[in-house]
């Protein structure tokens, strides 16, 4: 199934500079910025600059350079925000929602980096 990227999504507009953002870190292929509706004291979104909808889309079609830059930027953001465990930070959680079951709101790949408080269990089990 081909991946269809909607270039009018809100993160595409942020990347084009049409909507402001609070940038945490920008690299050649990646942008990290504060979530507009933070769910924890630390809540940063990390997005590739390329037009990728989901993690699996990115993993399938991004270049090695984009992938390395993206993964390293997420790690750097954790370091910059002081959430790395063991160095005074209390740890963090990364989440990437995809599609309907994942309840993805914005159809441009993003990893949420959350921290700054105990985050509770990952999911509530529903039997
Ligand atoms: P999703 O549910 O797709 O995983 O998460 C989308 C995230 O994007 C949400 O946490 C939401 O608060 C954030 N968001 C939506 N619109 C904007 C915006 O215009 N600016 C920023 N910085 N974050 C946004």
Automatic annotation (TrEMBL):
<dbReference type="InterPro" id="IPR011146">
    <property type="entry name" value="HIT-like"/>
</dbReference>
<feature type="domain" description="HIT">
    <location>
        <begin position="10"/>
        <end position="127"/>
    </location>
</feature>
<dbReference type="Pfam" id="PF01230">
    <property type="entry name" value="HIT"/>
</dbReference>
<feature type="short sequence motif" description="Histidine triad motif">
    <location>
        <begin position="108"/>
        <end position="112"/>
    </location>
</feature>
<dbReference type="InterPro" id="IPR019808">
    <property type="entry name" value="Histidine_triad_CS"/>
</dbReference>
<dbReference type="InterPro" id="IPR036265">
    <property type="entry name" value="HIT-like_sf"/>
</dbReference>
<protein>
    <submittedName>
        <fullName>HIT domain-containing protein</fullName>
    </submittedName>
</protein>
<dbReference type="InterPro" id="IPR001310">
    <property type="entry name" value="Histidine_triad_HIT"/>
</dbReference>
């Amino acid at each position: 199934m081909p991946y269809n990227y909607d270039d009018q999504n809100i993160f595409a507009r942020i990347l084009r500079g049409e909507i402001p953002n609070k940038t945490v870190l920008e690299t050649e292929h990646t942008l990290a910025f504060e979530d507009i509706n933070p769910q924890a004291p630390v809540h940063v979104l990390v997005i590739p600059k390329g037009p990728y909808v989901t993690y699996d889309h990115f993993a399938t079609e991004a270049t090695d350079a984009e992938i390395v830059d993206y993964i390293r930027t997420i790690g750097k953001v954790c370091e910059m925000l002081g959430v790395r465990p063991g160095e005074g930070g209390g740890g963090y959680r990364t989440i990437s929602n995809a599609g309907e079951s994942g309840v993805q709101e914005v159809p441009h790949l993003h990893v949420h980096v959350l921290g700054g408080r105990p985050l509770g269990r990952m999911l509530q089990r529903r039997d």
